[in-house]
User: Fold Malate synthase from Iris hollandica.
Amino acid sequence: MVAMGYYDVPEGVDIRGRYDPDFATVLTRDALQFVAGLQREFRGWIQPAMECRQEAKRRYDGGALPGFDPTTKLVREEDWTCGPVPPAVADRTVEITGPVERKMVINALNSGAKVFMADFEDALSPSWENLMRGQVNLRDAVNGTISFHDQARNRTYKLNDETAKLFVRPRGWHLPEAHIFIDGEPAAGCLVDFGIYFFHNHANFRAGQGAGYGPFFYLPKMEHSREAKIWNSVFERAEKSAGIRRGSIRATVLIETLPAAFQMDEILYELRDHSVGLNCGRWDYIFSYVKTFRAHVDRLLPDRVQVGMAQHFMRSYSDLLVRTCHRRGVHAMGGMAAQIPIKDDQAANEAALQLVRKDKLREVRAGHDGTWAAHPGLIPAILEVFSASMGDKANQIHTAKREDATNITAEDLLQLPRGSRSMEGLRLNTRVGIQYLAAWLTGTGSVPLYNLMEDAATAEISRVQNWQWIRYGVELDGDSVGVKVSKELFGRVVEEEMARIEKEVGKAKFQRGRYRKACKMFTRQCTSEVLDDFLTLDAYNQIVVHHPKASSKL
Ligand SMILES: CC(=O)SCCNC(=O)CCNC(=O)[C@H](O)C(C)(C)COP(=O)(O)OP(=O)(O)OC[C@H]1O[C@@H](n2cnc3c(N)ncnc32)[C@H](O)[C@@H]1OP(=O)(O)O
Ligand SMILES: O=CC(=O)O
Ligand SMILES: [Mg+2]
Assistant:
């Protein structure tokens, strides 16, 4: 029973976010009890895993390099496979991704993609409103009742008869949920995202979309198989408490940190009955390369635009991922091309589409079973590229074994990307980073900027690259400027880029928006002595809004 104006919470749970009757339909006492159970059981596992990340960081700072773990050699060498792929998701040739916003959820499910990855992570600013509305939206989507009326267009959105299969990406292990306290401490954000969604949807999902399996998840930003082991145990506990068959829940893990590239087999092994593959999360991967090597002066990146999938270290990681997944009988998913449709310039639009086609052709030829699309307008072109190569096969798990990738070495995975560094690169990082952060602070987690998709992962590259260049005083040799980056130079760039942003977005929007706040945060992060772990950890404090009155009764 929900008392008017209060969430009905179980013992030890305190909700500090705004009360909303819609939110109360997902924040039920039983759902919160389930989340609290997860938090109580796994907090003692999460904290040590996060301490291990810090320990690894200290080793890398001291000069060590990530590498294959000799103690898990047998896991890499022995023959074993993951559980069979659920028939409902055998074909994942195109997966659209997007935040859990109501209209986008409907559009994505109707988009013609095989899968929709509904995002609580890189594409979402995790405000209380966004998260809770997202849970309501997903519940309605799984029920098949979701609709949306766009007042401005007088258009009503509803689900088609045939829709994409839903995967949900909870936040990473590092992010807290500051609006839900359990036993006096903030809950782990990912357990809130997973727990509420699973609790309300597992039965309908398995009966409908999943055809006996599910729900399905994407798991982000892991650095080690011990973190996959926690997820596996979370899944087992969830299955047990729901009374469903072990191995019903399935997840694709994003390999998007440099240390995790050395743990692909180990991650699949931990999740083997719950796995449905790995994905090349290329943007966070680039971010992680800089972060892992933050103390290595010999590992400086060229301009962000030059760090593409053709670089040896990126190609090696994609090849190894295909080889590993197919050996273990699961999907090897490609990643996100950053280009999006360009509405007002046909030639530029065709050029952007051509870049997407090229990227997808490389992926399908490398053996990937499917890939990501940022926008519905890209789906036909991507489908065309994949079906031209794969014919009517649902995937290439058994046909693209990539034995040639067996010998990929640590050196291949770590090879320094080649290219030049330019003043324009510094300016673009700054312009994009500030505008993205300004959007994030006002509740939007994915935005179009200069005809590209920007989200938390791409913004991280802008931030850490600036930090690295300032920290090591790199010379900008790419556009014949020939200056060294310093805090002073960066200060001038920030001033000039803020003026440019104001001109581009217009005075009114600039005044209304949070550009100044974003600029301050971005500048601090780029110039700090020690590199912050995540842009969004610092920024999260700015979007936490505790309700002035206690909104839960203990
Ligand atoms: C690194 C990573 O983690 S990648 C994965 C995370 N990132 C993402 O998921 C990004 C998803 N994409 C998006 O958010 C958007 O496409 C953006 C921000 C890049 C571009 O947004 P916009 O420029 O506003 O899109 P645009 O105006 O062209 O949208 C046209 C229509 O397509 C819809 N649309 C655009 N992108 C998506 C999407 N990803 N999912 C569903 N619908 C979408 C819009 O809702 C709009 O629908 P409408 O015509 O019914 O109103
Ligand atoms: O999550 C995907 C990425 O590229 O980062
Ligand atoms: Mg990512």
In short: The chain has 20 helices and 17 strands.
